Amino acid sequence: MANWTTILFLLVAAAFCRSSSAATYTVGDALGWTVPPNPTVYSDWASTKTFVVGDILVFNFASGRHDVTEVTKSASDSCNSTNPISVANNSPARITLTSAGDRHFICSFPGHCSNGQTLSITVTSTSSSPAPQPSSRPSPSPVPVPVPSPSPSARSPSPSPSSTPSSSPVPSPTPSREPMTYIVGDSFGWNVPTSPTFYDSWAQGKTFVVGDVLEFNFLIQRHDVAKVTKDNYASCSGQSPISLTTSPPVKITLSEPGEHFFICTFAGHCSFGQKLAINVTGAPATPPSSIALPPSDTVPSTPSPTTAPPPPNAAASLRASAFFATFLAVAVALFY
Ligand SMILES: *[C@@H]1O[C@H](CO)[C@@H](O)[C@H](O)[C@H]1NC(C)=O
Ligand SMILES: *[C@@H]1O[C@H](CO)[C@@H](O)[C@H](O)[C@H]1NC(C)=O
């Protein structure tokens, strides 16, 4: 009886594995395909995934400012795009992983690959057991610069390494509270975004109060932070900025109420959306004793992170439930 059950289990499992469906992975998740704020972002991203033949990579990037160049391993190691295997210039670039083995993707724009815009993955074939290192798959562990979980919808606040995931929900912002530090763009940092309204969306729903701090994280000498007038913000002019800061991380304390405008003065960056406009409200009333928010390193989070499970996990659980349904049906049919 036990043997029968085991055999049945293996048969169903084998049948099931062949029918598992392909997964689609958005490279870098919400960060997209760009010069990352930290050179290990894409290797960290890939280390939490198991790629199988038939899976699809989607690269989202600003067309004309990046590309997806597939190269050999040695060319990837040396960031040499002279003899590419393929080049995709238009976003989104969808690449189906048609065979097992290692694949290497870089951006051929000068300096991008050497600053971390490079992705190497290993694709396994479907017939082998799912994962060579099953232990590395389960949950994306916190990494120095975490990439938001791959929920394609709402941009989730950056899970900072020190954050306590299940602390009591942050109360809705009120005029009276401790000063807060906002990480501009969360884990995306201060970068040329894929969408020109990225920083508008980031600022939306946040309440900035006099005394709060904006922290801009970016690669030195590839971006800067200029505080500018409303007109210069609108026209993306970095001429005579109110202030200009070039060394990350740039921390700017919001000392006055009203509108504040920030741009990157590097050519083209602002017009591609690397610009931030915020409204700062008046000074907080009395520092309350009831709410003690950690003053820094805390990105305000929506009270309940309604995180849909990431696609691969969703697919996995679907596979699991489909499996058990099939197993039960077969078992019932055989034994009753
Ligand atoms: C890049 O690779 C090509 C061959 O694919 C080689 O001829 C060239 O010297 C390489 N460039 C550098 C800078 O290594
Ligand atoms: C700031 O608030 C005023 C009044 O609500 C609004 O007209 C303006 O567009 C806001 N500016 C920004 C940058 O959000």
Automatic annotation (TrEMBL):
Domain of life: Eukaryota
Pfam family, one: Cu_bind_like
Keywords carried by this UniProt record: Copper, Disulfide bond, Electron transport, Glycoprotein, Metal-binding, Signal, Transport
Domain (Phytocyanin) ranges: 23-125, 180-282
InterPro entries: Cupredoxin (IPR008972), Phytocyanin-like (IPR039391), Phytocyanin_dom (IPR003245)
Biased composition (Pro residues): 131-151, 158-176, 302-313
Signal peptide: 1-22
Residues covered by region (Disordered): 123-180, 289-313
This protein's GO CC annotations: plasma membrane
GO MF annotation, one: metal ion binding
Record-linked Gene3D superfamilies: Cupredoxins - blue copper proteins (2.60.40.420)
The protein's name: Phytocyanin domain-containing protein
